Amino acid sequence: MVFSALGDIAALLPYLRMIEPKPTIITSYLGKELLKDEFKDFLLLDSKKMLDVIRLIISVRKLKLDELIDFQCNDRSRFISKFSFSKRVFNNHGIDTDSPVHVILSKMSQRAMIFDSLKLKREEKKNGQYIVLNAGSSEKWSSKRLPFGKWREISEYLYYVYKLPFILTGALDEVDYVNEVAEYIKGDVINKAGSTSIIELKYLLRDAKLTVSTDSGPMHISSVMGTPTIGIFGATSWIKSAPFGPWSIAIYDRTYFLDDKPMERNSLIINEDLYANIDIKSALKKIKQYI
């Protein structure tokens, strides 16, 4: 059960894939759009209104579940769990919620006996013929957006190394920003911001040679699809929200964050100094074997 933002749902994929037989996913319409190609059975929460919550509880009761895993772990999901009449409910009770997201998800999954230890399996990937730059982030999180000149710098180096075209991605509310980013990119650019469905974005990211992204849903989708992923952080915590797998890496401005610690709280304040000294060269070296 999960109703979160796209990135939170995407982060669950490695754990959901381990469950046999395939589970019923209790989620939102957003979650179904991301997961519908891999899972068949869904129960959807139409809205946060109490009437819709009660309707969902009734639907869950009809399943007579032996086990329910509450990956959402908020008041609403605990309420649903309590009245679901499931025989066993698993959540994050007793787990340090300040831990990295994949540590929390792994411990919850082990608690529910999905697996003894998560094996990081990565399917053999085709040699991708493009690089994705996921430059956008929602208007609320404009603080995650890099200065335009930094995207020029990043693209110049990637083009020098790989000589591949770039595909720019972003949601509808990020189109204006991504359109301007496109003007700064070195090399051939295809701008798909605002023009892909979630499932199209999922496979666009899967088939890329490399993804470079802000801390966002597409960053998490890319990493769980096995694509080498560089997540760029500044206004948010790279310790908490790093992308999945050894083929992925989180980077941050080591000049600004001299103690290698993120801010105590995620910041909505736009501060270009957070990204002034971002350098992807060392990150590329660390995941080179996967690219």
Strand arrangement in the largest pleated sheet: 7-6-5-8-9-10
Percent helix range: 25-40%
- When the domains are counted, the total is 2
Structural class: alpha/beta
Biggest β-sheet description: 6 strands, parallel
Instruction: Quote the beta fraction.
Output: 5-15%
Low-confidence stretches: none
Report on the architecture of this protein.
The structure is a single chain. By secondary structure, this protein is α/β, with parallel strands linked by helices. Helices cover 34% and strands 12% of the residues. Strand 1, helix 3 and strand 2 (42-44) form a beta-alpha-beta unit. The protein folds into two domains: 6-111, Rossmann fold; 131-290, Rossmann fold. It is built from twelve helices and ten strands. The strands form three sheets. A six-stranded parallel beta sheet has the order 7-6-5-8-9-10, sandwiched between helices. A two-stranded parallel sheet has the order 1-2. Strands 3-4 form a two-stranded parallel ribbon. The model has no long low-confidence stretch (mean pLDDT 93). The longest helix has 15 residues, at 148-162.
SSE order and pairing:
Blueprint (H helix, E strand, L loop, with lengths): L5 H6 L1 H4 L8 E3 L1 H7 L6 E3 L5 H14 L3 E3 L5 H8 L5 E3 L10 H11 L19 E4 L13 H15 L3 E4 L5 H8 L6 E3 L6 H9 L3 E5 L2 H8 L4 E4 L5 H4 L6 E4 L29 H6 L5
Parallel strand pairs: 1-2, 3-4, 5-6, 5-8, 6-7, 8-9, 9-10
What keywords describe this structure?
291 residues, alpha/beta, Rossmann fold, 2 domains, two-stranded parallel sheet, 12 helices, 34% helix
